[in-house]
Each structure stands twice: as C-alpha cells, then as structure tokens.
C-alpha cells in the first residue's frame, strides 16, 4: 500500500509526466491560487511584517551559529523535566529509537501527528516492516496513506487530489484500516472531514504510543511546539501514555521569547490565517496531564552537512511554511511528486541536495535546475532564505562535482570548444568565417546538444561578424 | 564515538569559520496597545467562527447556562469560578469516558486580541489538556483583564514550564482543495464568554 520516492527519475523526466496530467494541473492551479490570495490578505494586515521577517532570519542564524551549545542546553532542560533524549545520526538510527520504544510497550500500532522529519526518515515503512502500523492522523496525510500515494506538498500533502477523488479513496479504503466511511458519503469537504473524525476517533481513544515531530524546540526551557489545525495533534500529544518526538536539530530556537516572532510568521505564511486553530507546547512530562513517558529524538540526517555549506546553510532557517511552493511557477505546473522527495518545491530544490550532497545521484543533482530563478520564493519566505542564490551556488557545485567525469556532457564539450575559440583572436575570426557562411547555427549545433536545443531557439548567425563590419567601416573612410 | 558526540562534533566543525551573526533586531516588540482591545479580540474570535458571548461578572452563571443550552452532560475542571449543579468535576476520567460528555467549561490564561486566540496553561479552572479536547463543545471563560494586544505580550506573560494550548476558533482543516472546513477532531463548537470588568 505504501509508495516510495526511492528510484524516482530526475526532475526533467518526472516533470514531463506530471505536465501531461491535466487533472493534476487543474487541482494545483486552484489550490495554489486560493492559498496565495489568503496569505496576501493576512500578511498585508501586519504593519511590521518586514521587521518580523528580519527578526525571524536573525533568530535562526543566531541559533545555528551556536547550535552545539543550544543542543546541549536543550538536552539538559528536557532531561531535567523528565524526558529521555536520544541522538540519531541518520534515518536508520532515528527509526530504530521509535521502534524500540513501541516494542518496549508491546504495541503493534502508533498514532502519528503530521511530521516532515518522520517522513524524511521513512518511519512508517520502517515500522511496517517490523509489524507496527503507523496511523497518520492529519486529514491530508490520511488521504495520502489510504490512497497508497505520496505527499506532494509540505502543508497540504494531498493538494493534488480533488474532493471527488478523496471521496472515492475514503469509500474504498477506510474499511481496511478501521472504521469504514459512511455508505452515503458525499464529496462535500465537511462530510469528508466528518468521516475522518469518526474513523480516527477510535484510534485516538485506544492508542498507547504516539509519534510526532516538532515545529520548534526551545533550548532554555526544553519546550517542544506543534502547530496544527485539526486537533489530531492535540489528540496524539495528550491522550496516549507514551510520546516520541522526532526533531531535526535545526528546529532549535534559543529562548521561549523567540517564539513571539515565529508564532506570527508561520500561520500567516502557511495557511494564510492570523493564527492556526491549535498550537500545543509542552516541556517534558507534566504529572497528571498527558503522556507520562516522553522521548525526544534529535536528528541530524544531513543537517550538519548543510550547516557546513557557507551559502546553503541559510536553508536550515526553514520553518516549513510552504509559502515558496505556493508562489512557484514551476511547482504550480508540475506539482510535488516531480521533485522526488518529501520536500518539494523551491525549498526542496535546495534542501535535498544540501542534506544529501551532490555528485552521486542524478535525481538530486537535477533539483537545483528545477527553477526559473524568478525570485518569487525569496519574496515570500518568512525567514528570508535567498533560495535563488543557493540554487545558483548548488548548480556550480553540481558542475564541479562532474568535472572529473570521464565522458563529458555534450554541453561541457560545446562550452569547452567555445572557450578555446573565444580565447584567441585568430581562432575566433576563423570560427566567425565558418559560422557566417550563412547556415543557421542550429543546423550544426542542434544535433550536438539535442536536449539543450529542444527547448530553446537557436538564433541565426549574421552573415557578417561585428569585427568584420568594424574593419570594413573603418576602411571605407574612417567615420567614427 | 556516540551519536551525540558525533553530531556535536559535526556541528562544531560546520560552524567553526562561520561569521558571527548580528544581534536580533526586536523592532516588532513594544507596539502600543490599540484602543478597544476587548472589542478587537471578540471580533477576531468571531471571525474564526467561534461563538462570542459577553457578560457582567454577576451574569456569568446565566450566560454559561445559555452557552450550554440543554446539555446536562457537562464536565468541568477543579477551580472553575462558577458552580454548575449538574456538572461532573474531572477526577482523572479516561479518554473514552471524556468522549461521553457533551460539553466542557473552562477558564483561560490569556486572550490575544490581534489573532483572536485563547491560551490555556492548564492551571486551576482550566484542567488538564484532554479535558478541553475530547468533548465536542468547549465553553471558555475569559476575563477582560486577561486580553493582551498581540503575540509578544502573550508570550511574555506565559510560563513555558506549563503545558499550553493556543486555541483560535474551533477545530478546522483546509486539506481538501484548501477550503476551510470547521470541525475535525477538536471541539466542533467553541463558545467564548467574555467577562467584563473582571
């Protein structure tokens, strides 16, 4: 039932397939248009929005610069409040912690709050292989999970599905996972949400172990924060006896008061609301209230690699609002699946190569090119990540990584030939004479770089080069 | 080396030559409170389709009774400032037991005007977190003096050592075609009772 991003083709190939899907394009156009308009209204309402963006970027930069110290403080604060802290270098280590906790309590199911980190590490598949069912409880994640589908958006993972498709998935698949959908289920969004409420309530009431991510981790107080809308987060964070939270190490903010920036930036950028319906904060174990056994997994999984990149490290400021997806002309047309990762869109085009490194996987190496560099993403980013600059720098890194390749790309060959010709005046004039014979350059250049020329028009080379024209003009009387 | 040592060493190596970032500019803090704070709060609460009621301290009980309608299956936390004769006081009921109640009445710690948000820090009168989550109707009492202007003022007032729930309107989702639907897992009806002059 579960799908995987593993083995996805490079972006250009995946994008071509997605572009041919008219239903997908229509769903995306509608959804991204709606959310863009909502965001614009609530952002315009805030007089000091630019001050908030600047502060948000600065808090994250300060946190990242001294991340080692903040992580140690966070660990101390959590431990003092009764939480158990685990460290995980990679996905396998993090998944193993969760599986061990589940096994220690003898459960064969866990309920989950929507979390990018647990998707990134493939937790559901890892647990399924060990006989533990991980139930997604966010509505969109439920749609994706029941449909055996992949998420295509950070905030709204089922953005590629319309209401009729969702009704069909609920009707056909809910029964196999628990309480079936009502037989007369319509495609009204209110009805669909009601069906999810009934289906999941029995799971909330019986679950003993929950797994969550966190939007923020406050170092000095050991406070974790989950920002959500539906209340499924509150259910998971409150009702089970045991809670495991997987937190990327870049989620750390130094102090409680730093949250006053992000609680303003995140909801307006994300769902286009002044405030999301529910935000939960908790610091370790509270006696008589909520889970009495609390685990926190601090996850690296490539984040220290990204942190070492002087241009790219700003991507770790990301608060996963997904505003950059909603304004991106490329994302709006191809959707999230083409990026081959749980992090799609402009932020995914930089985050995936930064987390994984470039030069070894063609899919990852294709992502920095999945952009027109229009800059809309930078304009809306609540923490001012200069995505276009990072994209350009990553393109350089991809090129550098392939320099020693034994068979050079056609593009590299043409560029090398051009460099040789342009490097010397005599060679250049010889080249100009050959090109100026009148043949459109594409006639000989085209077959050499078919993929390059298939989406670009080749200009016709003028019959006379500028240098020849100059010489002729000067010879004819030296007019200036 | 342990995973902890490895990660901390990798972090230190990664930022060793990174420039020191400038101090965080806090220009967004300290704006004067707008006039009519309480009116703005109620307007914004209503904007997210919570029901708003307003009363003098002496009318609180009658107002809460109106908010509950005919519901008599009501649970309340210890420390609620009013006595509802038919209500059950929370004594550590299980989630399944809480699910059988129609409504819950609690107080709050802070109200935020600009965002129409209630914050519960789950002290006396507010109850543990599950209490205001499982029943389908949440009646929440806020004193006018608890309303602050914006998020920074609320953060400054709240104690991070306590668990908190920030509530802005009833449970909602925008997961289907990004159109907002009220009523998923949290209480589908949220009634905010503002108590003036208190």
Which structural traits does this protein have?
heterodimer, A: alpha/beta, Rossmann fold, 6-stranded parallel β-sheet, 4-stranded mixed β-sheet, B: 198 residues, alpha/beta, 22% helix, globular
Q: What is the averaged pLDDT score of chain B?
A: 94
Q: Helical amount among residues of chain B, as a percent range?
A: 10-25%
Helix proportion range of chain A? 40-55%
Under CATH at level 1, the class of the domain at 49-303 in chain A stands as: Alpha Beta
CATH H-level name of the domain at 49-303 in chain A... which superfamily?
NagB/RpiA/CoA transferase-like
Low-confidence stretches of chain B: none
Residues in β-strands, percent of chain A:
5-15%
* Structural class by sheet pairing and helices of chain B: alpha/beta
At the first level of CATH, the class of chain B is Alpha Beta
Mean pLDDT of chain A: 92
* Rg estimate of chain A, integer Å: 26 Å
Query: Largest sheet of chain B, if any?
Result: 6 strands, parallel
Largest interface: A-B, 95 and 73 residues
Please state the structural category of chain A. alpha/beta
Shape of chain B: globular
What's the number of domains of chain B? 1
Distance between the termini of chain B: 59 Å
What is the correct CATH architecture of the domain at 49-303 in chain A?
3-Layer(aba) Sandwich
Quick one: how many beta strands of chain A? 10
- Along the chain, the helix and strand elements of chain B come as HHEHEEHEEEEEHEEEE
Strand order of the largest sheet of chain B: 1-12-7-4-2-3
């Amino acid at each position: 039932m579960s799908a995987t991003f593993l083995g996805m083709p490079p972006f250009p190939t995946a994008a071509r397939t997605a572009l041919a899907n008219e239903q997908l394009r229509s769903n995306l156009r509608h959804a991204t248009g709606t959310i863009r308009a909502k965001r614009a209204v609530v952002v315009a309402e805030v007089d000091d929005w630019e001050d908030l963006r600047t502060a948000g970027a600065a808090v994250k930069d300060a946190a990242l610069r001294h991340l080692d110290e903040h992580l140690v403080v966070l660990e101390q604060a959590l431990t003092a409040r009764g939480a158990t802290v685990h460290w995980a270098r990679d996905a396998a280590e993090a998944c193993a912690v969760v599986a061990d906790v589940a096994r220690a309590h003898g459960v064969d199911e866990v309920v989950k709050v929507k979390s990018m980190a647990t998707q990134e590490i493939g937790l559901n598949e890892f647990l399924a292989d060990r006989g533990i069912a991980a139930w997604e409880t966010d509505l969109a994640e439920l749609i994706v999970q029941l449909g055996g589908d992949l998420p295509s958006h950070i905030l709204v993972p089922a953005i590629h599905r319309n209401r009729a498709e969702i009704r069909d998935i609920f009707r056909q698949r809910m029964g196999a996972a628990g309480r079936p959908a009502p037989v007369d289920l319509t495609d009204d969004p209110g009805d669909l949400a009601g069906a999810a409420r009934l289906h999941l309530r029995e799971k909330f009431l019986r679950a003993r172990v929950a797994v969550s991510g966190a939007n923020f981790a406050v170092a000095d107080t050991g406070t974790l924060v989950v920002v959500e809308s539906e209340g499924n987060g509150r259910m998971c964070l409150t009702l089970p006896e045991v809670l495991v939270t997987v937190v990327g190490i870049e989620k750390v903010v130094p102090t409680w008061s730093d949250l006053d920036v992000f609680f303003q930036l995140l909801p307006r950028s994300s769902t286009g609301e002044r405030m999301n319906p529910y935000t939960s904060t908790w610091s370790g174990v509270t006696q008589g209230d909520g889970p009495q056994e609390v685990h926190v997994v601090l996850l690296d999984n490539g984040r220290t690699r990204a942190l070492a990149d002087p241009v790219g490290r700003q991507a770790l400021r990301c608060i996963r609002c997904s505003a950059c997806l909603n304004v991106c002309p490329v994302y709006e047309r191809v959707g999230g699946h083409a990026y081959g990762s749980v992090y799609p869109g402009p932020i995914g085009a930089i985050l995936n190569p930064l987390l994984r490194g470039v030069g070894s996987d063609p899919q990852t190496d294709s992502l920095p090119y999945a952009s027109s560099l229009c800059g809309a993403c930078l304009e809306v980013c609540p923490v001012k990540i200069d995505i276009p600059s990072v994209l350009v720098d990553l393109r350089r890194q991809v090129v550098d990584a392939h320099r020693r390749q034994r068979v050079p790309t056609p593009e590299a060959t043409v560029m090398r030939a051009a460099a040789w010709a342009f490097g010397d005046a005599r060679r250049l004039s010889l080249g100009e004479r050959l090109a100026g014979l009148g043949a459109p350059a594409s006639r000989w250049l085209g077959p050499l770089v078919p993929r390059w020329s298939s989406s670009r028009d080749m200009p016709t080379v003028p019959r006379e080069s500028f240098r020849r024209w100059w010489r002729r003009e000067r010879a004819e009387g030296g007019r200036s | 080396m342990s995973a902890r040592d490895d990660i901390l060493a990798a972090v230190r190596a990664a930022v060793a030559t990174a420039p020191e970032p400038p101090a965080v500019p806090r220009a967004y803090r300290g704006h004067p409170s707008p006039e009519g704070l309480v009116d703005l709060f109620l307007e914004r609460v209503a904007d997210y389709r919570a029901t708003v009621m307003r009363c003098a301290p002496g009318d609180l009980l009658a107002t809460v009774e109106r908010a509950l309608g005919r519901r008599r299956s009501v649970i309340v936390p210890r420390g609620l400032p009013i006595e509802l004769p038919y209500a059950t006081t929370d004594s550590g009921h299980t989630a399944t037991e809480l699910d059988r109640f129609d409504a819950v009445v609690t107080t709050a710690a802070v109200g935020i005007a600009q965002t129409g948000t209630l914050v519960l820090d789950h002290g006396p009168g507010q109850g543990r977190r599950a209490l205001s989550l499982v029943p389908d109707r949440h009646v929440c009492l806020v004193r006018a003096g608890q309303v602050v202007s914006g998020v920074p003022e609320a953060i400054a007032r709240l104690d991070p050592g306590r668990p908190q729930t920030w509530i802005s309107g009833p449970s909602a989702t925008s997961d289907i075609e990004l159109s907002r639907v009220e009523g998923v897992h949290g209480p589908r009806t949220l009634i905010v009772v503002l108590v003036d002059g208190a």
